[in-house]
């Protein structure tokens, strides 16, 4: 699918054009004329993903300082993920999030003190992530800036990245798109847009195999609670929640 970058107004034409050129996307001064076509919009609020047409859901942008991220933190919802990667057992964990997506899990890990390299192969997701990260770093909010300063980002296929890297990190974290999520009526708006845009992650087994060569402590895979484990190797142990679980593969 061809995605265009569109300026919200005349002030953002140069930014939108530069982003399109950098990421190999199309530049268009106007949103798509047909309904339900995804496009990136560049405005004073940042970069967001929209669907064209009058009945489209609201835009999706990466906002690490949003209320739901703060609520997730206060409500202790980050603990399962933290336990899965080993927060509390080791200090200053280095993590590669090889399926960064909208960066929510990466941000949680950074907030828990991990140094996180986010890898994302979709140019659209990368554009949203980088803009969210830039806004977080410039926010003037000490908590948000501190967590964002522990995040780095590359637009790359993680399998190729891990094959080329020579250094190991403590943990490799994977959350590949799971097709059955599409059947849930309660699937979040942004994940629905991403599934429409990105399709299934067909190479998760290969991604898991590549991760074992680069992790020195654990590989962690997020799965829907009742989904099978990724094929290839059985997890050493599982940390289960109501909707999702984390399959943990200790590396010895
Ligand atoms: C389910 S989403 C991840 C959501 C993420 N955990 C979050 O908290 O926002 C999966 C993402 O992984 C990316 N992805 C899947 N396989 C990848 C690969 N081999 N290299 C880089 N990115 C990959 C997809 O493009 C998609 O954006």
From TrEMBL:
It catalyses: guanosine(1516) in 16S rRNA + S-adenosyl-L-methionine = N(2)-methylguanosine(1516) in 16S rRNA + S-adenosyl-L-homocysteine + H(+). Pfam families: SAM_MT (PF04445). Its main location: cytoplasm. S-adenosyl-L-methionine binds at residues 104-105, 120-121, 175. InterPro entries: 16SrRNA_methylTrfase_J (IPR007536), SAM-dependent_MTases_sf (IPR029063). Belongs to the methyltransferase superfamily. RsmJ family. This is Ribosomal RNA small subunit methyltransferase J.
